[in-house]
């Protein structure tokens, strides 16, 4: 019930940075956390979903955590963008002031529209440091796409920023915090977890690993895991920056090792006892077999 929900502790918002290729998403996040991911990327193109949490001062003064997900803007990665949008509380749509509305800008607007009752939208018009850019032209074009910007009396906040110079970034963070505060995000911090695989890969040393976004509960080493047809037991938990963690709570993401199989990006992650996981796996495997048989029969 609503009263039960109100008694839960607050959790950090999950904020996904989205937009057309090269509109400056990674650079903007780099500046926010004083790092340089963008420079190390092959061809300057993001090819995965990056996740990290940063403490930021909220409008009340005290620090709060925001979890950011960086997504690729390249046309080839629409599945990753859909995944990013589906687990997020807030989408920051980055539009480069010198390039305007492009195909993946529109794709992001479509994704947000699908989840508009759940997902908050903030528009960041980026690269305003470039000479000759016309921000009002971009805003008018966004309005023509149906984005009800605050500039025109709507409810979608728009911030003018430069990821390169850092101009406007404090305002962007403040705006995100305000939207998150209105969402009043809360989650159970104890007990079984509920989360999603953002991405997965086999690590040379750690074996199958997954970056897992936790939305409920507390993930700790030794816990049994199930995701799709993959299972395991948490061995190592690492922050996206590489430090070992003792526990991962709601609204944050971590690299999880200890999988027997490689889980699939986008799949739900649950914890359980050995018995529960064994039973669930058997059920899922049976169901997958049955579906394969039906497909064969139909073919
Ligand atoms: P994908 O992940 O591949 O979609 O790209 P992205 O949106 O993450 O863009 P990225 O951060 O890789 O930046 C693309 C190019 O734009 C780089 O050359 C950046 O240096 C440049 N750039 C990013 N932000 C700004 C900005 O605010 N001002 C200027 N002048 N250039 C910027
Ligand atoms: Na890029
Ligand atoms: Mg990028």
Summarize the SSE layout with pairings.
Layout: H1 2-6, E1 14-19, H2 25-32, H3 37-40, E2 50-57, E3 63-70, H4 78-86, E4 90-96, H5 103-114, E5 120-126, H6 135-144, E6 158-160, H7 169-183, E7 194-203, E8 207-216, E9 224-227, E10 230-233, E11 237-238, E12 252-257, E13 268-272, H8 274-298
Parallel strand pairs: 1-3, 1-4, 4-5, 5-6
Antiparallel strand pairs: 2-3, 7-8, 7-13, 8-12, 9-10, 9-13, 11-12
Helix pairs in contact: 4-5
The structure holds guanosine-5'-triphosphate (GTP), sodium ion and magnesium ion.
Guanosine-5'-triphosphate (GTP) binds next to helix 2.
Domain Tr-type G: 10-186
Protein name: Translation initiation factor IF-2, mitochondrial
Subcellular location: Mitochondrion
Verbal overview:
The chain has 299 residues and is α/β, with parallel strands linked by helices. Helix content is 29%, strand content 27%. The protein contains 8 helices and 13 strands. The protein has helices at 2-6, 25-32, 37-40, 78-86, 103-114, 135-144, 169-183, 274-298; strands at 14-19, 50-57, 63-70, 90-96, 120-126, 158-160, 194-203, 207-216, 224-227, 230-233, 237-238, 252-257, 268-272. A 7-stranded antiparallel sheet has the order 10-9-13-7-8-12-11, sandwiched between helices. A 6-stranded mixed sheet has the order 2-3-1-4-5-6, sandwiched between helices. Strand 5, helix 6 (135-144) and strand 6 form a beta-alpha-beta unit. Helix 4 (78-86) packs parallel to helix 5. The radius of gyration is 20 Å and the shape is globular. The model has no long low-confidence stretch (mean pLDDT 92). The protein binds guanosine-5'-triphosphate (GTP), sodium ion (NA) and magnesium ion. Guanosine-5'-triphosphate binds next to helix 2.
């Amino acid at each position: 019930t609503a009263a039960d929900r109100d008694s839960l502790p607050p959790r950090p918002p999950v904020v996904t940075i989205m937009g057309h290729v090269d509109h400056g998403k990674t650079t903007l996040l780099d500046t926010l956390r004083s790092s340089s991911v963008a420079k190390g990327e092959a061809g300057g193109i993001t090819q995965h979903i990056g996740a990290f949490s940063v403490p930021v001062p909220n409008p009340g003064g005290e620090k709060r955590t925001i979890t950011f997900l960086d997504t690729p803007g390249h046309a080839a990665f629409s599945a990753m963008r859909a995944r990013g949008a589906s687990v997020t509380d807030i989408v920051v749509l980055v539009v480069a002031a010198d390039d305007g509305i492009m195909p993946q800008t529109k794709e992001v607007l479509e994704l947000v529209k699908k989840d508009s009752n759940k997902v908050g939208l903030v528009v960041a018009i980026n690269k305003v440091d470039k000479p000759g850019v016309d921000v009002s032209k971009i805003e008018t074009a966004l309005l023509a796409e149906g984005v009800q910007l605050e500039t025109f009396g709507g409810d979608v906040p728009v911030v003018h920023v430069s990821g390169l110079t850092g101009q406007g970034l404090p305002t962007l963070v403040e705006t995100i915090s305000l939207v998150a505060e209105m969402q009043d995000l809360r989650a159970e911090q104890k007990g079984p977890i509920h989360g999603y695989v953002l991405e997965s890969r086999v690590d040379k040393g750690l074996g199958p690993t997954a970056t897992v976004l936790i939305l409920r509960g507390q993930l700790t080493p030794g816990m049994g895991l199930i995701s799709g047809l993959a299972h395991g037991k948490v061995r190592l938990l690492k922050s996206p920056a590489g430090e070992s963690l003792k526990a991962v709570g709601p609204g944050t993401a971590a690299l999880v090792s200890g999988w027997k199989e490689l889980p699939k990006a986008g799949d739900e992650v649950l914890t359980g006892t050995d018995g529960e996981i064994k039973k669930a796996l058997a059920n899922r495997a049976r169901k997958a077999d049955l579906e394969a048989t039906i497909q064969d029969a139909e073919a």
